[in-house]
Amino acid sequence: MAGARAALRPKIVLESTAGTGYRYVTEKNRRTTPERLVLRRYDPVVRRHVDFRETR
């Protein structure tokens, strides 16, 4: 059961586009979002909100 859930909702790493190297770890639904995820999150290094892109 856990294996099926892990396959559908993999853990992904979101890395800051500000070049600070700050990262968030989250999950995404592969069925509804097959493309790479881009979220606007807070980067504490530059102390503002920036785009975070999914890395592989």
Provide tags for this entry.
56 residues, mainly beta, Rubrerythrin, domain 2, 4 strands, four-stranded antiparallel sheet, elongated, 1 helix
Describe the structure.
This protein has about 55 residues and is mainly β. It has a single domain (about 1-55), classed as Rubrerythrin, domain 2 (Single Sheet). The protein is built from 1 helix and 4 strands. The protein has one helix at about 1-10, and strands at about 10-15, 25, 40-45, 50-55. Strands 2-1-4-3 form a 4-stranded antiparallel beta sheet, with no helix packed on it. The longest helix is centred in the first third of the chain and has 7 residues, at about 1-10. The radius of gyration is 13 Å and the shape is elongated. About 5% of the residues are buried. The mean pLDDT is about 95.
Secondary-structure blueprint:
Elements (H helix, E strand, L loop, with lengths): L1 H7 L2 E6 L6 E5 L10 E6 L4 E8 L1
Antiparallel strand pairs: 1-2, 1-4, 3-4
Helix/strand order, N-terminal first: HEEEE
Which radius of gyration do the C-alpha atoms yield?
13 Å
- Span of the ends, CA to CA: 25 Å
CATH superfamily: Ribosomal protein L33
CATH architecture: Single Sheet
With strands numbered from the N-terminus, the spatial order across the biggest sheet is: 2-1-4-3
| Low-pLDDT residue intervals, each spanning 5 or more residues | none
The major β-sheet equals: 4 strands, antiparallel
- Report the sheet-strand fraction: 35-45%
Number of folding domains?
A: 1
Q: What fold name goes in the CATH topology slot?
A: Rubrerythrin, domain 2
What is the count of helical runs? 1
Number of strands: 4
What helical percentage do the residues reach?
A: 10-25%
Overall structural class, as computed from helix and strand content, comes to mainly beta
Using the alpha-carbon principal axes, give the shape. elongated
Level-1 CATH class name: Mainly Beta
Question: What is the typical, i.e. mean, pLDDT?
Answer: 93
